[in-house]
Amino acid sequence: MEKEFYTINELAEITGFTTRSLRNFIQMGHLEGEKVDGIWQFSAEQIGSFIENPNVAPGIKSKNNSVVYDFMADANKKENQLCCIFDLILSADERKECSDYFCKAVNNCGNKSAKMKLEMKGENVRVILSGPEDFVKDTIDGWYK
């Protein structure tokens, strides 16, 4: 079953922005959402519009690139780690499925070193996934099954 709404914490994981920054984007009108029982909720369409906003996209790109740079800079890892970048060309429905799948994978991983970033521009989706070797391999295998 596909997820209908994302919380502000899940959006922070997707974008790399802090929840405080996301609240600032809401106040500036760059991010639309709905507060339900005191909790911000965002649809996939609202997230897509936010990510593609020209005022927001450069910050997201910078956050995404930092995942790769941080991975490369850490020469003292305590376990085998992988960092993968892949570019996908997806329909609107597939983009939502992609976002749902990778968010769920990272949220259910239980390992704080697992990271995922999405960058969307039209049909193009860039996924950056890093973390424990088994998690990254299994997550990518799961996407392609």
Q: Can you walk through the features of this model?
A:
The chain is of the alpha+beta class and 145 residues long. Helix content is 51%, strand content 23%. It has helices at 8-15, 19-28, 44-52, 57-73, 92-109, 133-144, and strands spanning 6-7, 34-36, 39-42, 81-89, 115-121, 124-132. Strand 5 and strand 6 (124-132) form a beta hairpin. The protein starts with 5 loop residues before the first strand and ends with a helix.
Give the low-pLDDT segments.
none
Strand order of the largest sheet: 1-3-2
Largest sheet: 3 strands, antiparallel
User: Judging from the principal axes of the Cα atoms, what is the shape?
Assistant: globular
- Share in β-strands: 15-25%
Structural class: alpha+beta
End-to-end distance: 16 Å
Number of helices: 6
Strand count:
6
Q: Quick check: average pLDDT?
A: 88
Radius of gyration: 15 Å
Q: How much helix, percentage-wise, in residues?
A: 40-55%
Q: What string, H for helix and E for strand, traces the elements in order? A: EHHEEHHEHEEH
